[in-house]
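Progress narrative, work stream C.
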Amino acid sequence: MRNDDDNAALEEARDWLHFLADTSYDLRHDRPG
């Protein structure tokens, strides 16, 4: 039971990190100049 909760949290954290990485990449590379 505990392990399932941890796995779900890791999946959510991984998705969030990917979202942040993609967003920061877009902000760096879409900025003019």
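Work stream C, second folded protein:
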Amino acid sequence: MGAYVYDGSFDGLICAVKAAAGDPAAEITRTSPPQEGLFSRAVEVEASQQESSAFLRQLDSLSDVETPEKMKLCFLWNGPEKESLLLAYARMAFSRGKELNNMLADPVVARVHKAAAAVLREAHRLKGFLRFSELQDRTLYAKMEPDHNVLPLIAGHFKRRMASSDWVIHDTARNLAALYFGGRLRVAELDKTQPPPFSDGEKEAVGLWRAFFNAVAIKERTNPRLQQGFVPLKYRSNMPEFDKD
């Protein structure tokens, strides 16, 4: 039994899947197994974008374009054992070919599709729920704590929508941030720290927004359950209209 160890990157995972696909007893892990003696070997897999892209093209050819897309989305998923799930899914692409993504009754295919849908759903929601605040240096700052690693999916959307502004989207759950300055977008590590002070105009705008939100709310028609259906509780801590301060 072999353990293929990757570096946590998408290219690293795909290279590990490629290396392990032909070994029916193999497993993939982000760290070396705690009792390496239980395994015949532990192989450190080097991440290679070229090798990863070539393997995804092979899966596309064997099954369809949906397979590599589902694998990319499943990598962003925060569910358990995604490495073993993607390994099983890739193996099925070799054995089932073009019928793979129509096999929705199969537990592996069903889990991959469900995971991909969960990631896309959260990315779609955050495109509407994300709130930017102006800092004293005029940079726009938005904080989020998503279940899944949707930052790579939403950063491009805001680059197109807010191309004339400098902004930061901070995923405090993963200590990552999308940084857009001077027309250039990059993703970097950013600790979970307090943001720089808001501008005076931002403080005033937030106060007016809260006042408006409270004024238009009709107390007799308040429906918390319906409201939660449109704006889940987990997003509200980063939305000024729900801030009680």
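DSSP finds nine helices and eight strands in the chain. No further action is required on this item.
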